[in-house]
Design a protein that fits this description.
The protein is an alpha+beta fold. The chain has a single domain, classed as Chalcone isomerase, CATH 3.50.70.10. Helices cover about 35% and strands about 25% of the residues.
């Protein structure tokens, strides 16, 4: 009998206590589909990202009544990206880190941890694939591929910066932010 071979539970516990990126994927039981995760939400804004004339993805913001864009990190919401071309998952993760660093200072160690977690979650995508991120306030971000559970990063700081790529006033794509949020502003007008 090999007494030095750790069982899976002990290994995951050790990773969780060590703060390993993989541990963030085990935070709690998520909803199995994006439809269940966002059942009280509706699509409020859409935008298309174009870079140097190339169409990259269509984005849709899903919110519940009372959503306040200035305090987005306090709300549960979804952001769906419907890809218009193929990308490697690692490239999506690296671009996300670059955008997050444009919003706030991120240490090299933190960036490496988040990059590893996103690289494990984000698959290579083809035209028509949808990745939906669900912001869970105070907890982190859950991800779905074509409506099915993919994984989560249980880190509220990560979630704030990740969704800030689209919703922060400091985004590199202010027109996209305006298009995603404009229907909310119009709904508040008398």
């Amino acid at each position: 009998m090999n007494t030095h071979r750790p069982n899976a539970r002990a290994l995951w516990l050790a990773l969780a206590l060590a703060g390993a990126p993989g541990a963030a994927l085990l935070a709690n039981t998520p909803e199995p589909t994006v439809d269940v995760a966002l059942k009280e939400h509706r699509a409020v804004g859409q935008a298309r990202l174009r870079v140097w004339g190339f169409e990259v993805y269509d984005a849709s913001l899903w919110t519940a009544p009372g959503f306040d864009a200035q305090r987005y990190a306090e709300h549960r919401f979804g952001l769906e990206l419907s890809y218009l071309r193929s990308f490697k998952g690692r490239d999506i993760a690296e671009r996300s880190i670059d955008e997050m660093r444009g919003l706030a200072s991120v240490s090299p160690a933190q960036a490496a941890q988040w990059l590893a977690a996103m690289s494990a979650l984000f698959p290579d995508v083809q035209r028509g694939d949808r990745i939906t991120g669900v912001h869970v306030p105070g907890s982190g971000a859950r991800f779905y591929l074509n409506g099915q559970w993919r994984g989560e990063i249980a880190d509220a700081g990560f979630a704030r910066l990740f969704f800030g790529i689209w919703l922060s006033p400091k985004t590199s794509q202010p027109r996209m932010r305006d298009n995603l949020l404009q229907p909310l502003a119009q709904a508040r007008q008398p």
